[in-house]
Amino acid sequence: MGLLEGKTALITGVANKMSIAWAIAGAFQKEGAEIALFCMENNYRRVSKIAREMGIQTVIPCDVRKDEDISRAFSAIDSVFGGKLDTLVHSIAYAQIEDLGGEFIRVSRSGWNMALEISAYSLVAFCRLARPMMTKSDNASVMALTFGGGEKVTPGYNIMGIAKAALNMSIQYLAYDLGPDRIRVNGISSGPIKTLSSMMVEDFSSALNLMEEQAPLLRNVTLEDVSGTAIYLASSLSSGVTGSIIRVEAGISSLIAPSVTHPRRKALSKSN
């Protein structure tokens, strides 16, 4: 028996096999959950193909900028899962390429609105429509993928940092609203991971190098690290946890100013 045996899970934001959402889908399936996916319309054929390879039958395109499209997608989920949803994973983020890198002060009004609407408001809209289904669960769990750039300046992350800050506070307000319905809402703040979208961030490779040189664990985090935390949040093991942002970033945020090489890393480099 897996930790999620008999549970239903909607995972949003799957784009390709490198995405965090896809890793979570695979981990949930191994633990016994029944999976459905939301994806962008232009990713539908690709996501449907990789989903079939893993035996996932339900893939629903959803434009999160349109309330009517979100309503249509959740109506389909209600039908597929028989009116009960145990877990909702929000892994959606978007910013215009010109708003990543360079000076943050140059962000346009349209770029600001688009990033926050897609990356943060979509969680609120999803929770509102998932609520009736999740009240029928005995362990309802919502989780959203966030990043440390929503708490501290991460050069090049720019407008996405603002969007993640909005997402972080949305998680806490939603946890407050949905707590009486026995629906838990939490966030997973991952360290930098190589995905197709992360590679669009200016000088992303430096962030990966910094993790290996400075993080207490002296390594980068993996998709398995993040999906393992997602399993915990979806299972009864975390039944008392809500309104929290769980950091899965090898301890890098515990450092005051990670800028110089870790002394043990220097010693390891010399020995090699």
Could you characterize what this model shows?
With 272 residues, the protein is α/β, with parallel strands linked by helices. 42% of the residues lie in helices and 14% in strands. A seven-stranded parallel sheet has the order 3-2-1-4-5-6-7, sandwiched between helices.
In short:
The chain contains eight helices and seven strands. It is an alpha/beta fold and 272 residues long. α1 crosses α7.
Which features does this protein show?
8 helices; alpha/beta; 14% strand; 272 residues; seven-stranded parallel β-sheet
Topology:
Layout: E1 8-12, H1 20-30, E2 34-39, H2 44-53, E3 58-61, H3 67-80, E4 87-90, H4 109-134, E5 140-147, H5 159-178, E6 183-190, H6 204-214, H7 223-234, E7 245-248, H8 263-271
What pattern of helices and strands is seen along the backbone? EHEHEHEHEHEHHEH
The tally of strands reads 7
Strand content of the residues, in percent?
5-15%
Largest sheet: 7 strands, parallel
Radius of gyration: 19 Å
Described by the principal axes of the CA atoms, the overall outline is globular
Give me the side-by-side strand order of the main sheet.
3-2-1-4-5-6-7
